[in-house]
Request: fold
Amino acid sequence: MTPQELYEMLKKVQEPKGYFFNQDMDRTMQLMEGLLQNKERYGYMCCPCRLASGDREADADIICPCVYRQPDVAEYGSCYCNLYVTEAWNRGDIAREYVPERRPADKMPY
Reply:
C-alpha cells in the first residue's frame, strides 16, 4: 500500500466522524509513510510521532488513531501529530497551539 492509498482509505472512514487530515499534504504524507513503516516494523500502525515498544498490547493506546486523538482534537483542534484536525483548524479559524503529550510516562518504552 502506498501513502496515498492509505490516505484515501482512512479519509473515507474518518471524515464522516468529523476528523479531517491536515491540509499540509507534505506533513500528512510523511505521517502516512510513518504509519506504513510502523506497520511493516511492528505489524500494526502505531503513532509515527511516538516511540513504540513493539508489544501490541503495550502499544494499544497509540495505535492510530490513538486513544488520545479525541480529547486532543476536542481541546486543541488537532491530535498530537497534527495528522487529524478539525475543519476549523485547517481553515485557521482557531489557534494552532502545541498539543502536549497525554500518554502517561509509565506507558512510554524509554
Summary: Strands lie at 20-21, 84-85. The mean pLDDT is 96. The chain is about 40% helix and 5% strand. The CA atoms of residues 89 and 95 lie 7 Å apart.
